[in-house]
Design brief:
about 25% helix; about 260 residues; transmembrane; Trypsin Inhibitor V, Chain A; four-stranded mixed beta sheet; about 30% strand; elongated
Length: about 260
């Protein structure tokens, strides 16, 4: 009977030692080895690399315990310098382990070529959306007499008409010739002599014409700010949208007007 009790006691002690050993080993594995192996708690914050040139990345990231790799595919932005960072993964302010590799997309040296779409006969609003979607920039809008209001009549690149399918660099500026909705009506030029600039502009625009060059002439015979000449002269027949050039009096320098 005594031997049985001693055996049970020894077994219990052995089991206790085994349990204690397992507990200690588990603690060491979970709290010491595993965190050390996975660099637990050793994270860094990813900086914002946008705009950095590729030559600046290695030292900048090395000082922060990070590395980088350039993606094969590049992008293009008119505003960014060639070979500067456009995108990155992981993004800025991400928490990563030390030594993590940051994948960057660089700006290409030369703008990629894209085919010019056909904007003729499109509404101006739609034409602007198309240009923006394919990476082109809407330039000057040139209004000409035409019954189609805000309808694109011509598309120009560097002052020349450009056909559909012609290849141009991404980010290029496209000027649009657009109808003003008035057509080629024949109008009579109103008399502007004796009016001030504000009244003259109101009359010009109200007549279906537009303001041309404004010139100033020194004179002491007409009050300052009054129109003394116009071109084309009053009574001449012109087409809708024709510019009217005016000359405005101003006091001679050194002359006091009371």
């Amino acid at each position: 009977m005594g031997n049985t009790k001693d055996s049970i006691k020894k077994i219990a002690i052995h089991l206790g030692l085994v349990f204690l050993t397992i507990t200690i080993l588990s603690f060491i594995f979970l709290k010491i080895y595993l965190p050390s192996y996975t660099n637990h708690g050793q994270t860094v914050t990813v900086p914002n690399l946008e705009g950095f040139e590729v030559g600046e990345l290695e030292k900048f990231l090395s000082d922060r315990d990070l590395t980088y790799e350039v993606n094969i595919d590049s992008g293009y932005s008119v505003e960014a310098k060639p070979f500067s960072v456009l995108k990155q993964n992981p993004g800025p302010d991400s928490k990563v382990k030390k030594g993590r590799k940051i994948y960057v997309t660089l700006n290409a040296r030369n703008a990629p070529l894209i085919k010019m779409p056909n904007l003729v006969n499109s509404l101006l609003k739609n034409a602007q959306e198309i240009l923006g979607n394919i990476g082109l920039v809407r330039g000057e809008i040139i209004y000409v007499p035409d019954i189609g209001i805000n309808v694109v009549l011509e598309q120009k690149y560097r002052g020349r008409n450009i056909d559909e399918g012609f290849e141009i660099p991404k980010g290029s500026q496209i000027d649009l010739v657009v109808g003003d909705g008035l057509g080629n009506q024949i109008l009579e030029v109103p008399s502007l002599t004796g009016l001030d600039e504000i009244d003259a502009e109101f009359l010009i625009i109200g007549s279906g014409l537009r303001m041309g060059n404004i010139n100033y002439v020194e004179t002491d015979s007409v009050a300052p700010g009054i129109i003394i000449r116009q071109m084309p002269p009053a009574g001449v027949s012109v087409k809708t949208g024709e510019p009217i050039e005016i000359w405005i009096s101003e006091g001679k320098k050194g002359t006091n007007n009371f």
